[in-house]
Design goal:
The protein is an alpha/beta fold. It is built from eight helices and seven strands. The protein has one domain: Rossmann fold (3-Layer(aba) Sandwich), CATH 3.40.50.
Length: about 250
């Protein structure tokens, strides 16, 4: 793998996909800067991955705010010398019918989109100085494939924009050897669903996926590491990769 000594920024890094991916990057020899809103959980996650604190650092805050984004990139440069990889993973999700959506709901999704947009801008400025790198965004299967049973127009509007951003950045920065791709998951069992579904309700989605099971965080982690690693994916950019158990393949 070509991840040894790479400097990786991960938003939404305190639990679930972000935390699992952070551990995988660390175990591959990378240096990691984690971000999420909750300082206590973020600190706990960072210390569980690297108790020495030598190769994992963290910044708590909302990536929708310029101050947080600047702190993340500045810390990566001051502690580890630069930025090679950005994993835009922070997320919110709540299925809700279109007519029930409030302006506050949409503001939350658009604030997250703002975070992805300007976090990418801040990271690219640093990545250019390293001669290239990678950005991986978390999109959504729902932005590719609407499902009547789980209406989520607010989230899908923002994630559709993330898909468009991915393709635009891939074209614009290809000459700088910065590859930009996105992953579009279906139902992945993470703490994101804890407040939305009981374990039994979550398990009921297993049959929703043609492969017969919900996604696990390791499924997304493996895709992220593949797209981040130049030795595996150096000729791939601008891709929206469904990691969805086959949902977008067709009717099941």
């Amino acid at each position: 793998m070509s991840l040894q000594d790479k400097v990786v920024l991960i938003t939404g890094g305190s639990s679930g996909i972000g935390a699992n991916t952070a551990r995988a990057f660390y175990e591959a020899g990378a240096k990691v800067v984690l971000n999420s809103r909750r300082s206590d959980i973020l600190q706990q996650t960072a210390s569980q991955i690297d108790s020495s604190g030598e190769n994992v650092a963290f910044v708590a805050g909302d990536i929708g705010k310029a101050k947080t984004r600047q702190q993340i990139v500045s810390l990566a440069i001051s502690r580890f010398g630069g930025v090679d990889i950005l994993f835009n993973n922070a997320g919110i999700f709540e299925p809700k019918s279109f007519l029930e959506h409030t302006e506050a709901d949409l503001d939350g999704y658009l604030n997250l989109l703002r975070g992805y947009f300007f976090m990418s801008q801040a990271a690219i400025t640093a990545i250019q100085k390293r001669g290239g790198g990678a950005i991986i965004n978390i999109g959504s299967m729902w932005a590719l494939h609407a499902i009547a049973a789980t209406p989520c127009s607010g989230s899908s509007t923002a994630k559709g924009a993330v898909h468009a951003l991915t393709k635009n950045l891939a074209i614009e920065f290809a000459a700088d050897k910065i590859r930009v791709n996105a992953i579009a998951p279906a139902v992945v069992e993470t703490p994101l669903f804890d407040a939305l579904l009981t374990p039994e309700q979550l398990a009921s989605f297993n049959d929703f996926h043609p492969l017969g099971r919900n996604g696990q965080v390791r499924d997304i982690t493996e895709a992220v590491l593949f797209l981040a690693d130049d030795s595996r994916s150096s000729w791939i950019t601008g891709v929206i990769l469904p990691v969805d158990g086959g949902v977008t393949t067709g009717r099941n």
